[in-house]
Design goal:
By secondary structure, the protein is of the alpha/beta class. The protein has eight helices and twelve strands. The protein is globular, with a radius of gyration of 17 Å.
Length: 259
């Protein structure tokens, strides 16, 4: 979720609305872009209609920083939204298997109908609670786990909980990384930070102008220097169509007493 985006008057015309046990789901169209919202204030997703694989939110761009040093064979995403991150990865990494876990079945329908989410065997979508999925997921089964789970104006509390975060660690491969979006720093509680520090070999964070904070936690140390990572940005910049360099400059290591 991206908290500091324009109110719905700037999202254009509402073209779809549905409701489930978690609340409303609304799609807006301003002519060039489509927006998914669960309330009247916060964007869940934004996609350019002519370039549906281009990421429009800075925090989503930042979540891909592990691709500077990781070549994942399997990526797991918790939370689908409009599917822009899944669509981006589907195009960017043609040899990678993608597995999305989404709680709300109507969201999957909306992503396919309004946001051009690919329908392909390489992109598996499972409708269930992410915590339940972790209970039965095979250890070491994914190389990159991207977690961005939000309701209308509140984060799924599992993203703060010890059991959830330890289970995320367990399903990562030995070189695997977790990237987790918090809409602001306060959502990353001391409990969550303790799990990151105790269970993972390296922990980093990246703050973006919207106020979102992305926490990165790896089971192994990044095998490159900061200069080498900056050099690798050039290639990833071209592939993604946006300057990853700006996020690398904000990407700081976390120690037990802070950055």
């Amino acid at each position: 979720m991206n908290r500091q985006d324009p109110p719905p008057i700037h999202w254009g015309k509402e073209i779809f609305r549905a409701h489930d046990e978690y609340g409303p789901m609304r799609v807006f169209d301003d002519g060039n872009k489509r927006y998914l919202a669960f309330d009247s204030r916060n964007e869940q997703s934004c996609a350019h209609k002519n370039f549906p694989t281009r990421l429009m939110h800075e925090y989503a761009c930042a979540m891909l920083l592990p691709l500077l040093f990781l070549q994942p064979r399997h990526i797991t995403l918790f939370g689908l939204g409009g599917g822009t991150l899944a669509s981006c990865l589907f195009q960017l990494l043609p040899d990678t298997q993608l597995h999305v876990v989404e709680l709300r079945p109507r969201i999957v329908e909306i992503a396919r109908r309004f946001f051009q989410l690919p329908d392909d065997p390489r992109l598996k979508i499972e409708v269930m609670d992410a915590g339940d999925y972790l209970t039965n997921a095979a250890p070491g089964s994914t190389d990159l786990l991207l977690s961005d789970m939000y309701f209308a104006d509140i984060m799924d509390a599992q993203q703060q909980q010890t059991r959830f975060l330890e289970s995320c660690h367990q399903i990562l491969s030995p070189q695997g990384w977790l990237a987790l979006n918090y809409s602001d720093r306060a959502e990353c509680t001391e409990t969550a930070m303790n799990v990151f520090m105790q269970r993972f070999a390296e922990v980093r964070c990246c703050s973006v102008p919207s106020g979102n904070e992305v926490i990165f936690a790896g089971r192994s140390i990044i095998p490159h220097t900061e200069r080498e990572l900056m050099d690798r940005c050039k290639s990833l910049n071209n592939q993604l169509g946006f300057p990853v360099t700006r996020f690398v400059k904000r990407w700081g290591r976390l120690a037990r007493n802070g950055i």
